[in-house]
Amino acid sequence: MASRRKTAIRLPRKYAKDEVIEVKTRIIHPNHNGRMAYKDQGYIAEYYVWKIEIFYGDESIITVSASAALSQNPYFTFMLRATHSAPLRVVWVDTQGDQYTESVDVVV
Amino acid sequence: MNWLMNTRLFTETLSKAALTRRGLLRSAAAIGATLVFGKVARSEPEDLIADQPPPEYTLEERLQPILAGREPREDRVTLEMPAYAEDGAVVPLRIKVDDPFLGSGYVKSLYLFVDNNPDPLIFTSKLAPDLGSVDWKLKIRMRESSMVRAIAEMDNGDLFMDTTEVEVSISGCG
Amino acid sequence: MRKTISRRGFLKGSTSAIVGAAGLAAGAGAGSQVSHGAAPTALITRHADIPAAKGTRAVVVGGGWGGLTMAKYLKKEAPDWDVVLIESHATFMSCPVSNLWLAGLIDLEFISHSYLTAAKNNNYIYFNATVIDVDRSERVVYTSGGQLTYDYLILAPGIDYDWPAVGMLDPEEIHLLHTHYPAAFKPGSEHLTLKRKIDEFEKGLFVLTVPSGNYRCLPGPYERACMIASVFKRKKLKAKVLLLDFNPKVKIKAEGFQAAFQELYKDYLEYVPSVTVHRVDVLNKTVIGEFDDYQFDDASIYPRVRGALLIETLGLVAESSPQKEARINLFRNHLHDDLRVYVIGDSRPMGYSKSGSTANDEAKYVAKVIVGLDKGKKLEWKGPYTSCYSMVNADPPEAIYFGSQYLPPLIAHTPMDMERTVKAWIERGSAFAWRDQNMNRSPEMGQAMYAWAYGYYKDLFG
Questions:
Q1: Contact C214 B171 (CB under 8 A)
Q2: Under 8 Å CB-to-CB from C412, ≥6 apart: which residues?
Q3: Interface contact flag, B172 C412, Cβ < 8 Å
Q4: Looking at the structure, do residues C12 and C126 belong to the same domain, yes or no?
Q5: Which of A53, A59, A78, A88 to probe by mutation at the B interface, max B CB count within 10 Å?
Q6: Does A71 contact B140 at a Cβ distance shorter than 8 Å?
């Protein structure tokens, strides 16, 4: 059964060294854009993931800086050349300053 | 408890220049969510409410600093989106760049714009030189029907772009 | 598709199509097509066995909540009209409230009703047949029971499932999925199959899915998850409902449902948001998601919904409709080029909830529009009301409530002041003019839900 953690990374089941593989990531986060009315009392305040940073080993390979327009539970998939065995780490940072980290090992 | 939460957020808000435009924040829990919902425990930061929505930006304001006088060529980038989206809260998209890491350098940055969104800039990004391929999938919010543009910036400063038109029909739910 | 077609052209085309089908059904070669050739022609030229029209005749296609209301209220608005309700089922089974039956709170009689009684009580004709085609130039409806003419035609055909939208393209696999794990949002055999599944479930994971887009009964899958979980809880089973939602959060009545999930069904229900279904592997009992795969012991898979196939076969699908809904005037429900043909209910293109109560209120308004236009009178537009209870607890029965009225539809190319409409929707963050809700479940609300259903059945059949 798949895990139902707040954060998740998925790699293909099988891949070879130097193969370009698809990496899927997602975080469960309300990602409020600050524009939804809250009854008649104002707006649900902005509260969203503004940065997604991917580390392969120690190297930062992708940084996405987002506005409030990613959908709730931000989903992001990208391609990566699996050149070496190393942890693949994703760090999500939201507008509250909270950081969420998830990591999987790329093994070639 | 609510007061503490507010204070913490308020401090952080002040410390983040980009976010100070937010109005005075109050906690929904403090102003009656507990009364309204009774059984629902609401103590997450998502409960905070603001007097004002964030400001809106024009496409020009957001696009010009990135183009910086350069003209993107309609080539190499492919932006795939549904022509009709029945739920603007979740619009899937895929951005591909042809041969990004061969011959003529690599993709340094990808940008996404939705012309008619209150803030047309959806994201900026930085990419390492040795990823092997650029093929991204994300889901975004769209307020209304709009032109969407994906722009790739190469390491030598060349810009490539693809655009697509998405018609958004708002479903009548909540 | 064709707009108008001559009678002769219709006969030619349809006959060959039906013969082809008959040949296939017989599993025989070309020879059988010849021997069956006379039947469809006889069917099409036959006149339906119903009393002759005594006045202006309105034909209503589809006896769901919208169609039943339409037939009754046309008769109320214009007692001298001749109203015929064509419905392919011989018994009415209500989709609203059916989740309560699945959990054993009510018996089947509560949601089953007689078309004959409805027709008798309200002085219209119930014709048990299936519509095959419509000739708008001659104003003829062709059915499995013969043809009949109309002055006004109101189509209320409901929904069909959009299998390709959940990655199901192969008819073999669609057949397997539909028979093994039906959605049960088109009442009838699907519901009976699901009820048995729930009753016989012993342990493991029972998967339900919530589709993308505007689907029939927005709170339905969430209510159903609660009701099935209540059965597992009552029986103290080692069993869990796994609710896989395309949406990033509970789409409607979120506070009330989430409270129930957490407080009543912690061990019996798990909610997973943002699950896009790519395919269902029926043989391996697995939902293949965009991100994860989910193995199940039993399931009820709710694919995306689309406007009924009849709307498409009649060539009435709106050009830019992602869910193949009808091309109609958004304020008066008639075809743009034909004021004698109307579409109501779940095949409409407006973003209203595809629900029984919405269809009921819409039908009352459109009945007034039709009779009004016939007498040269134009009616002020009125947004439909929606009124909706969901049972979240079975022991004791406790419900939550949401009621509202819709603002004008927000779709481009309407004669409305677009800017004003857009602004109204955006400012309110929704399509509603007002809301009345109660997310605090209580036994009183549970009783109110029974009364609500009883009231509607009385309106439809009494």
A1: yes
A2: B145, B167, C418
A3: no
A4: no
A5: A78
A6: yes
Q: What domain count does chain A have?
A: 1
Q: For residue B173, tell me if it sits in a domain.
A: no
C382 burial type by CB count under 10 A (0-12 exposed, 13-18 middle, 19+ buried): middle
At B13, the amino acid letter reads T
C138 and C186 together in one domain: no
Pick the last residue of a domain from B11, B30, B50: B50
Q: From CA B38, how far away is CA C259, in angstroms rounded?
A: 10
Residues B12 and B86 in one domain: no
CB pairs under 8 A between A and B: 135
Q: Which two tokens stand for residue B36?
A: 């309204």
User: Which tens digit of pLDDT belongs to each residue from C142-183?
Assistant: 999 999 999 999 999 999 999 999 999 999 999 999 999 999
pTM to 2 decimal places: 0.84
C296 and C176 in one domain?
yes
Cross-chain Cβ contact A96/B9 below 8 Å: yes
* Residue B155 belongs to domain spanning: 59-168
Range of the domain at A74: 7-13+24-103
Q: Rounded CA gap, A77 and A81, in Å?
A: 14
Is the per-residue pLDDT at C63 higher than 50? Answer: yes
Closest C-alpha among C63, C64, C21, C54 to residue C39: C21
B47 touches chain C (CB under 8 A): no
**One-character DSSP codes across C404-418:** EEEPSP--SS-SS-H
CB C357 within 8 A of CB C457: no
Tokens 């854009």 correspond to A33
- Strand-pair partners of C131: C143
| Amino acid in the structure at residue A47 | Y
Query: In this complex, how many residue pairs, one in chain B and one in chain C, have their CB atoms less than 8 Å apart?
Result: 75
Give the 3-state secondary structure of residue C255: helix
Q: Residues 330 to 359 of C: which have CB under 8 A from any B CB?
A: 350-353
Stated as kind and residue range, the H or E segment containing B161 is: strand B159-168
Pair type for strands A7-10 and A20-27:
antiparallel
Confidence of residue B30 (pLDDT cuts 50, 70, 90): very low
Look at chain B and report how many structural domains it folds into. Answer: 2
Instruction: Return residues 4-43 of A near B (CB < 8 Å).
Output: 20, 22, 30, 32-35, 38-39, 41-43
Amino acid code (one letter) for A23: V
Q: Is residue A1 part of a domain?
A: no
pLDDT in tens, A43-101: 889 999 999 999 999 999 999 999 999 999 999 999 999 999 999 999 999 999 999 99
Cα(C104)–Cα(C195) distance, integer angstroms:
9
